[in-house]
Amino acid sequence: MSQSNEEKLPLSRRRFLSSGIMAAAATGLSAHGAPPIVGAANRDETVSRNAIEPFYDEHQAGILTPAQQNSYFAAFDVFAEKREDVVQMLKAWTAAAARMSRGQAVEPFENDVTVYTPDSGETLGLPPARLTITFGFGPGLFVKDGQDRYGLAARRPAALIDLPRFAGDELVEAHTGGDLSVQACADNPQVAFHAVRQLGRLAYGTAKIRWVQSGFLPNDSGKQTPRNLMGFKDGTNNPLANDPKLTNEFVWVGDEGPDWMRGGSYMVARRVRMALERWDRMTTTFQEQTVGRHKDSGAPLGKKHEFDKADYAATDDGGNPTIPENSHIRLGAAVNNEGAQILRRPYSYNEGANVAAQRWPPSRNEMEFDAGLFFVCYQRDPRTGFVKIFEQMSKSDMMHQFLTHTGSGLFACPGGVREGEFIGQRLFEKTKGV
Questions:
Q1: pTM: predicted TM-score of the whole model, two decimal places
Q2: What three-state secondary structure class fits 278?
Q3: Rounded-to-integer distance, Cα 119 and Cα 198, Å
Q4: Of 377, 33, 41, 34, whose CA–CA distance to 235 is shortest?
Q5: Each residue of 361-396: pLDDT tens digit?
Q6: What is the secondary structure of 166-200 as a DSSP string?
Q7: Is residue 24 part of a domain?
């Protein structure tokens, strides 16, 4: 990101500034009845926007945290030549994230190259809004263009794969990949954006933003399962967050992973554009057959209530499956994927009309929204999680005629940060040069 001239003061003028962030990173800052689903629907309606989500914990916040209303995701490319510069940036990021999670401003600080001015100030007076900041490491941090830039190649987890190309993918390079990821979630969109803005500023000279994606959930105070832009409840069958046994089995990395990833999780991020114009011209019956649920209640086809168990063996009067063989919920169900499960944490997005794709002058009925789903999921191993599930869905899911995956990324989100540590410390401290 660009910086003002005031941010690049000469060394001789730095002594009056506080080194607050770097000192904080060294000493450690102190911080700290719904259905079994993850998403806005398991957010207690009484939660105050003044609430603080702990930053220092066993696991990173923003994974099991009840989903906030707004998300701002950014993937970064790292271009620093020295690993020490990457470490210094991660220390600054950690200290800044801890402060912002408590609703505090980012303090000015200096390093050997740059003086950073104080917080940009657009959230002064705003509550923390349950801000969480989740960090991830992409494959390019370990090896990029065949080069082991920072001595980390040997520590790349086997599970941090290059995602395969799935049927129907139309990935745009400008919305794909990245060496580092940051996802800020909050109950105020400005608070979420502010967090990523500050981290981008602190990355000056070390990394730059590659792509970003904002997202939102309905403002219903967590009283019901949120609906996506297709009008269906999204997240009904997603029980992992409230069951520690399932979470340990399917979300958190265990002894099979490298030490720095234990207690962490792998995040898959997919930007999924919905052909809402075509979808809106379909009958409700067709839409329900495509999804496998009733649109109004959210119940599986053939059932009455949202949380009724889907009966995949049921047939109609003609002997056809009540829930079609190529319906979305059938193909994604754990029972039909050898037990594979992922923790879904998706957000809707809307970036206006895609004017460039329209003819000019436009026809009477022509309109294209650039809107859809920013799909985020966490799992213990993407090879037995997202990849296993989505390989089948991308080939057979009836819904995919209305979806185009235009962006993608896989990131290793390490375990939580203890006070006095920086994010990724266990990765860097076990390799030469720290």
A1: 0.86
A2: helix
A3: 7
A4: 41
A5: 555 555 689 999 999 999 999 999 999 999 999 999
A6: PTT----GGGB--SEEEEEEESSHHHHHHHHHHHH
A7: yes
